[in-house]
Amino acid sequence: MKSKIFLCLSLFCCCLNLSIAQGLDIQPSDTMQSVLQRQVGQSVELRMKSGEKIGGKLEKANEKLVHLTQLTGAEYFEAAVAVEDIAAVVVRAKK
């Protein structure tokens, strides 16, 4: 019985660690699109070329658009952002 409890707790901790943002891992061939695609499911803040910031949960990213939900400060709203207008992707690296 104790071994089953230990196994369940171990699996829970492993799953919890996987859900924590791991930060950015930039590769030589990366583009803004590839960086965004690796952050799908995570909370991000996008810094736009205009200087504006928009944050939320990154739902989808393709070559032209990024779909954000649960926008920071406007949780019931969603946004589609043009990839070409993004200057930086900011993610939380540690909790």
Q: How would you characterize the overall build of this protein?
A:
The chain is built from two helices and five strands. The chain starts with a helix and ends with a strand. With about 100 residues, the chain is of the alpha+beta class. The N terminus is likely disordered. The protein has a single domain, classed as SH3 type barrels. The chain has a five-stranded antiparallel sheet with strand order 4-3-2-1-5. It is globular.
SSE map:
Layout: H1 2-19, H2 32-38, E1 43-48, E2 53-61, E3 65-69, E4 79-82, E5 86-91
Antiparallel strand pairs: 1-2, 1-5, 2-3, 3-4
| Gyration radius, in Å | 16 Å
How many structural domains in the coordinates?
1
CATH architecture call = Roll
The number of helical segments is: 2
Mean pLDDT, to the nearest integer, reads 81
| Secondary structural class | alpha+beta
Secondary structure tally: strands: 5
| Shape label | globular
What order do the SSEs take from the amino end to the carboxyl end, as H and E?
Answer: HHEEEEE
Provide the helix percentage: 25-40%
N-C termini distance: 33 Å
Q: At the first level of CATH, what is the class?
A: Mainly Beta
Strand content: 25-35%
Q: Report the sheet with the most strands, covering strand number, pairing sense and barrel closure.
A: 5 strands, antiparallel
User: What do we call the CATH topology?
Assistant: SH3 type barrels
Short description:
This protein is of the alpha+beta class.
List keywords for this structure.
alpha+beta, disordered N terminus, globular, SH3 type barrels, 95 residues, five-stranded antiparallel beta sheet, 2 helices
